[in-house]
Write a structure and sequence with these properties.
Layout (H helix, E strand, L loop, with lengths): L1 H42 L2 H18 L2
Helix pairs in contact: 1-2
């Protein structure tokens, strides 16, 4: 039985690591979206704004999963 306990402990540790990685990636996506939107407001030509804002929205949606 002690082998099962170790496996369960290892799985819980792996799950906690995966959840932390997910949170870190979500934060990166949010920051990337913010950065894209800032650049669009300051430096983008009008014809490029729509595509950039769509990309930022995709990042935000991905970060919410």
């Amino acid at each position: 039985m002690s082998g099962d306990g170790k496996s369960e402990r290892e799985l819980k540790h792996q799950l906690a690591n995966a959840e932390q990685q997910k949170r870190a990636l979500q934060q990166l996506l949010h920051r990337a979206s913010d950065h894209i939107e800032d650049l669009v407001e300051r430096e983008c030509a009008d014809e490029d704004k729509e595509g950039a804002l769509k990309a930022a929205e995709k990042f935000r949606r991905a970060a919410s999963l």
